[in-house]
Amino acid sequence: MAHMSDIAVARGARGVEGYVLRRAEPEDLPGARSVMLDTVYRDFGHGYLPQWHSDIIDLDSYYLAPEDNTLFVAVRDGVVAATAGVRGQTPASPPHPVEVTSRFEEGRTATIYRVYVRPEHRRRGLAGALVDACLEFIASRERYSGVYLHTDARTPGAVEFWSTRGTVLFDERVAVNEMRTDLADEPFQTVHFELQLLG
């Protein structure tokens, strides 16, 4: 049976010329962390927030150590250009809307996190190839019965990308902001998705 990292490379090789896609090793973590931190500062505009981004600082504990979790990286010339992670984490309410949490089975949900690509490496198929690797990993684990993710609409192309790969469960830009009275705060930009498990 092929090793998971071999599968990721084989699938990623199609249309992702010049990059190696594989499961992250400990030596990849500083580069992966750099991609993630750059994204939350540049694309989200708010930077690192401990309550939402603690996994970025401790990638090993969140992604490498647990058996049913993983982190994939796309590497070019020894530099991490893109990331995508899987964690066995069922969305909970709060903070997520009950319309989202009611769709998933507690303890059996894989959540895809940190699908980030450095700007100079975008539009080359890296995000799609990394997500394919994540979905193959999820399918290889008996534990999972559903796949969840949420994205920040401020990330260029994110909502369009995920809309081609999954179903929108809840769009906070519409459902929440229209009902809010505390408009002094920044509007919500989160869109929640359900992805299909691979057969």
TrEMBL record:
Q: Which domain of life is it from?
A: Bacteria
Q: Where do the N-acetyltransferase domain residues begin and end?
A: 19-184
GO MF, one example: acyltransferase activity, transferring groups other than amino-acyl groups
Keyword field contains Nucleotide-binding? no
Q: Among its keywords, does the record have ATP-binding?
A: no
Gene3D superfamilies noted in UniProt: 3.40.630.30
Keywords from UniProt, A to Z, are:
Acyltransferase, Transferase
Protein name, entry field: N-acetyltransferase
